[in-house]
Write a structure and sequence with these properties.
The chain has 370 residues and is α+β, with helices and mostly antiparallel strands. 29% of the residues lie in helices and 36% in strands. The chain is built from 7 helices and 13 strands. α1 (2-19) crosses α7 (300-317).
Length: 370
């Protein structure tokens, strides 16, 4: 019985971890776990966002009532950032850090015109610490460090419109080729290890997205206009998504700096969680069919008993809905230069799950061209 309980607890953790990667699926009539409403969609669909960059009107008359996220950059502007990436395992009120990676990048304005900006984003340095106690955590830290170090010196060239919204990655094909080559090279010596089986599932687009993720976060809200204050929106569950609440907040400081934050909280019904776990348990028992025990007996006669025990343990372990939370906050200087970014993803099922955090902070700003 104790062993079954441990298996069920492991599956709860697995459900929580896989939910972040869009692998776990709900029942036929339920949304998939990856269909929890993303914060990117919420930002795009926000009622405070102008969907047409050419019709966005910068409100100067109503100062203090709205926040206009607009870039006022100059050719030669240079800003360096440190990106701190951390992950924790969550077990009730206890958290254990499993990943700690820091990456230094540089943003440069190469050209400025009335139509927008031509900019570059270069990876300068990376530092990683193995903070987890178990083998998997140490391996993941090593993989993260090797992959990150392989991109040092890489430059992404991109363009924005006049408001600072990214419109084009101008050397995307080159980045794709480099990403694929570097990824294969960094994984080659550990690809045969069991923990690296997931690496075989990665494709070039996913690797490239890893290159671009923090760059996109820095400019996530540019080209948008938000009403100052806190705003809340609730959406009931549909056949395509779970029930969710969106909390948006815009604040303006006296010195002109401003902060935009958005959090999307989705609720996954416990019935769906049980169904997912039941599927995982079913896969375990299915794998026993036709196989012999250590004393030469068939497993088949025990499978029904195992199924019943699994169901009892799942009912006991999952007594509440699961919850996912995605949070993004961006603080900008008055000229639209990003000062700091905080992004958090949290998935908790039956008190267990995973917390991922990315913190981006400006560390040096170079004198702009006069």
């Amino acid at each position: 019985m104790k062993k079954i309980s441990l298996i069920v607890m492991s599956c709860i953790i697995a459900c929580g971890l896989l939910a972040n990667h869009g692998i776990v699926k709900g029942g036929e009539m339920s949304p998939k776990v990856e269909d929890t409403v993303s914060i990117d969609k919420k930002i795009t669909d926000s009622q405070w966002l102008s969907n047409n960059s050419y019709t966005l009107e910068v409100d100067t008359a109503g100062e203090g009532s709205v926040v206009n996220v607009v870039a006022y950059f100059c050719k030669g502007d240079t800003c360096e950032y440190w990106i701190y990436e951390n992950e924790w395992k969550v077990n009730g009120k206890d958290t254990v850090k499993t990943l700690d990676v820091s990456t230094q990048v540089r943003l440069v304005v190469n050209d400025s015109t009335s139509k927008g900006y031509k900019m570059s984003y270069t990876f300068l340095d990376v530092k990683a610490d193995s903070v987890g106690d178990d083998f998997r955590d140490k391996m993941m830290a090593m993989i993260a460090e090797r992959t990150a170090k392989s991109v040092i010196g890489t430059t992404i060239n991109f363009e924005t419109d006049e408001y600072g919204r990214i419109t084009k990655i101008t050397n995307l094909s080159q980045i794709k080729k480099q990403a694929k080559a570097l990824f294969k090279a960094s994984m080659k010596d550990i690809a045969a290890m069991p923990i690296m089986k997931i690496g075989n599932q990665a494709n070039t687009d996913e690797v490239v997205e890893g290159y671009l993720e923090e760059l996109k976060l820095l400019f996530a809200f540019h080209g948008s206009q938000y009403a100052v204050g806190e705003h809340h929106e609730h959406e009931d569950a549909t056949k395509d998504s779970y029930a969710n609440d969106t909390y948006t907040n815009a604040s303006l400081e006296k010195n002109g700096n401003y902060t935009i934050s958005c959090e999307v909280v989705s609720v996954i019904p416990k019935e769906t969680v049980k169904e997912v776990m039941g599927g995982l348990m079913g896969a375990i028992t299915e794998g026993l069919k036709g196989k012999k025990t250590e004393d030469g007996k068939d497993h088949d006669g025990n499978i029904k008993d195992l199924d019943d025990e699994f169901k009892k343990e799942i009912d006991k372990a999952v007594d509440q809905d699961a919850q996912t939370s995605e949070y993004l906050s961006v603080t900008c200087f008055e000229d639209g230069w990003p000062n700091s970014v905080l992004k958090q993803n949290k998935t908790v099922m039956a008190g267990r799950g995973k917390l991922k955090q990315k913190l981006i902070e400006a560390c040096r700003f170079a004198q702009r061209e006069k």
